[in-house]
UniProtKB/TrEMBL annotation:
Protein name in UniProt: Major facilitator superfamily (MFS) profile domain-containing protein
Molecular functions per Gene Ontology: transmembrane transporter activity
Residue ranges that the Swiss-Prot or TrEMBL entry lists as coiled coil: none
Single Gene Ontology BP annotation: monoatomic anion transport
Topological type in the membrane: Multi-pass membrane protein
Signal peptide: none
PANTHER family associated with the record: FI19708P1-RELATED (PTHR11662:SF399), SOLUTE CARRIER FAMILY 17 (PTHR11662)
Compartment(s) of residence: Membrane
């Protein structure tokens, strides 16, 4: 992402790439429950296995490590990305690589706050992912097809809010209210 994300679009690109997993989950829930009800439980595994192979083929065909290596990108796009990527020299000088102080990283309260927040967020996501359909069926008495459709809603909400947060972060940076490095961590935790 470091070589692909121009500064004016960085938060949007990062939040959209993270949000893609939530959109996939939001779509997978109703599709899986429909396959389960209409075909068989095995069909869910065959369908997503086949989908995974197709996705991999598309990824191999359309992805590249750098804009200059991409087979389908125009020279204008390469020039735009190269101009706006912040890994360029600052004031005409080369940027020295950072050597992080690992002790300071792991004794930082901000790092531990991020670790705690991320752990709690993952716990909630995996509880929703694994237990929400069962809860809706057993406790609320919903049919599996209906619970599959509704189980995708929290993940659709995550997709929408995270994508909107990325756009808002880019807008704030463009208006000069913040730097990208300060907004991206809060963008991820906003949802």
């Amino acid at each position: 992402m470091a070589e692909w994300a121009p500064a004016p679009e960085r938060a949007r690109m990062l939040s959209f790439s993270w949000a893609g997993s939530y959109l996939g989950t939001a779509l997978a829930m109703p599709i899986s429950s429909t396959l389960l009800m209409q075909v068989s439980w095995q069909s869910v595994f065959y369908f997503w296995g086949f989908f995974g192979f197709c996705w991999t083929a598309l990824w191999i065909t359309f992805s590249a490590s750098r804009p200059t290596e991409h087979p389908f990108i125009s020279q204008e796009e390469v020039a735009y990305i190269s101009y706006h990527v912040q890994s360029k020299a600052v004031n005409g000088s080369k940027v020295a690589p950072l050597r992080p102080d690992v002790f300071k990283i792991f004794t930082s309260s901000a790092v531990w706050a991020c670790i705690a927040g991320h752990t709690a967020f993952n716990w909630v996501i995996y509880m929703l992912l694994t237990e929400l359909p069962s809860f809706m069926k057993v406790v609320l008495g919903m049919e599996l097809a209906a619970s599959g459709r509704l189980s995708g809603l929290p993940f659709l909400t995550l997709f929408v809010t995270q994508t909107a947060a990325g756009m808002a972060a880019d807008w704030l940076v463009k208006k000069g209210h913040a730097r990208v490095g300060h907004l991206l961590p809060s963008d991820v935790w906003l949802v």
